[in-house]
Amino acid sequence: MPSLPFTIPSSPKPIHCILSHPPTPPTPNTNPPPPSLIFTHGAGGTLASAAIANFTTGFSHHLSLLCFQGTMHLPTRTKTFPTITHHQNLPPTTPLGGRSMGARAAIMAATPKTTHLILISYPLQTATATRDQILLHIHPSTHVLFVSGDRDPMCHLPRLESVRARMQCPTWRIVVEGADHGMDVRPRKFTEAVGVKVGEIVAAWIRGRDESRREGKIFCTGDGEVEWTGWTGVHDDDDDDDGETQESAATTKTPDKTPAAKPPTTTTTKNPSTSKRKTNTTPPPPAKKRKPTHAQHTRTDKNGGGIATRTRSAPKKTT
Fold first, then answer.
1. DSSP string of 36-94?
2. Which of 10, 120, 124, 156 has the highest Cβ tally under 10 A?
3. Model confidence over 130-187: pLDDT tens digits?
4. CA–CA separation, 295 vs 317, rounded Å?
5. Is 258 helix (H, G, I), strand (E, B) or coil?
6. Across the strands, what pairs with 6?
7. Which residues, in sequence order, are CB contacts of 241 under 8 Å at separation 6+?
8. Confidence of residue 2 (pLDDT cuts 50, 70, 90)
9. Using an 8 Å Cβ cutoff, are 105 and 123 in contact?
10. Cα–Cα distance between 306 and 318 in angstroms, integer?
């Protein structure tokens, strides 16, 4: 894709930028279109990083993109966004974004007029803390898109869902199957194609989105193709309702299973005992009652030393 590197004067150091845009028919005196997104890399990254290059390729197929090189100092990186917006005469509504640390800087630089935030590999948690407070303070009118790998140790998906449920603004999420924090997938030969696909989907999302469909997944097939599920799912509130419905369904199913499980147990236990009682009711009970008396008579007979008493010694003793 056509790209234009340039530098913006700033103190203490100039800001190095690259403006990438879709191919346009060559016409004289044509200026490149203004950027649809201002984006920055993660901590320790550069504009030449594979994650930035792949994303830029996919995004600039459809919309223009301005990427800038930032410092490792988060407050300085945050201030770079408004510096670029002012220097390029961009509207305050221009979408902002970044990956990892760059995503944090984009959130901190956002204003109530910022329409979109693109947060790729947002580092939600550290070993000791959860970085959720800045997410909870994003303006309700801003639309937020998370792009996270399901192998990212810095953004556990269940925890991200919990935070999304508490955010005031509408959020969308793309899960990249098999991707880590750097958006690398296994096998690595698919990493470039995955990064390009992410850029294409993000550009399409900025153009327009369905508020009733907020979940999507990128995955690699066995044939080596990178696939996109498309947007699915519903609004977060509806998702919660679905969760409650499933819980209630599970609750109602449990009682059904319990009686269903009990009959076999009860039947197995009761049937032998019932059949025994039925068989024992006629012959066995009398036999069981007589045995103690015969035992007593036998003892009596043994004490008495007579064998004849064994036949009917009990009646004699009773009389």
1. S-EEE--TT--TT-HHHHHHHHHHTTTS-EEEE---S-HHHHHHHHHHHHHHTT--TT-
2. 120
3. 999 999 999 999 999 999 999 999 999 999 999 999 999 999 999 999 999 999 998 8
4. 14
5. helix
6. 17
7. none
8. confident
9. no
10. 17
